[in-house]
Write a structure and sequence with these properties.
With 237 residues, the chain is mainly α. The protein folds into 2 domains: 108 residues, no CATH class; 76 residues, no CATH class. The chain is built from 11 helices and no strands. The protein is globular and about 50 Å long. It starts with 23 loop residues before the first helix and ends in a 16-residue tail after the last helix.
């Protein structure tokens, strides 16, 4: 494999084995609407009462301290990949809106895209330090290999129009170009996972052949088994 991912086998002291469908910011985006899934009893017990920002940040905290530790530990790496890049604030905001179907807009809460990433990073670090007081976040290691960047862009290009049209219906114009900028200017791995998350969020249909190409590229990044094709809208030809 050209780029490997570390996968945790145990996520708590009782030996809970994670079933990993996504990791990092793309995983967080998939959970951004999670309160809507809860029963009223669970919602009242677990969702913060202080507003939408804390609801979103609670996903980060719980991913580290509860049952999604492998997915959650990648969040800090992903955030710092974006913060260390030269991507404009508006690109980061556009990508976040795109992969969450505009469910949470940082601008509505007085934050730029980078502000929002910094808030996520602060909560992520604090949560990790509750488990290990000596925890020091390692420096980010973005995937900048030219071949992998080109490979990701090659998979985005054939579905760009369909994805852009679907996202624009949810008032997120420019999401494809923003995703391409993440790939080219920040990290090929993160850009690919966010692209896949957007494809799933808008249920953009692809052929079986295209799906196989997506899977093959995922293997080059060393993704967990179902990260690429879980909830991907693959047409049976």
């Amino acid at each position: 494999m050209e780029q490997g991912m570390k996968q945790g086998e145990e996520s708590d002291a009782e030996g809970y084995e994670e079933f990993i469908l996504d990791i990092g910011l793309s995983w967080m985006a998939s959970k951004s609407e999670y309160p809507a899934w809860l029963s009223e009893e669970d919602f009242n017990r677990s969702v913060p009462k202080s507003g939408p920002v804390d609801v979103q940040l609670s996903i980060v905290d719980e991913s580290i301290t509860e049952f999604e530790r492998t997915a959650g530990m990648q969040i800090g790496e992903d955030v710092r990949r974006l913060l260390d890049s030269a991507l404009p604030d508006e690109v980061i905001r556009t990508v976040w809106l795109g992969v969450t179907k505009s469910y949470f807009d940082p601008a509505k809460h007085g934050m730029t895209g980078r502000d929002w990433m910094r808030r996520i990073e602060l909560v992520w670090t604090a949560s990790a330090r509750r488990l290990d007081a000596a925890f020091v976040p390692p420096p980010p290691h973005p995937v900048t290999d030219a071949g992998l960047r080109s490979a990701v862009l090659d998979q985005i290009r054939p579905v760009a129009d369909e994805l852009e049209q679907a996202a624009s219906k949810r008032s997120v114009p420019g999401v494809v170009h923003a995703l391409q900028q993440v790939v080219s200017e920040a990290c090929a791995d993160l850009g690919y996972r966010l692209f896949l998350r957007a494809m799933k969020a808008y249920s953009v249909e692809i052929s079986e052949e295209r799906g196989e190409k997506f899977l093959a590229l995922g293997e080059r990044f060393g993704y967990p088994e179902f990260l690429v094709d879980d909830n991907l809208n693959v047409r049976v030809d």
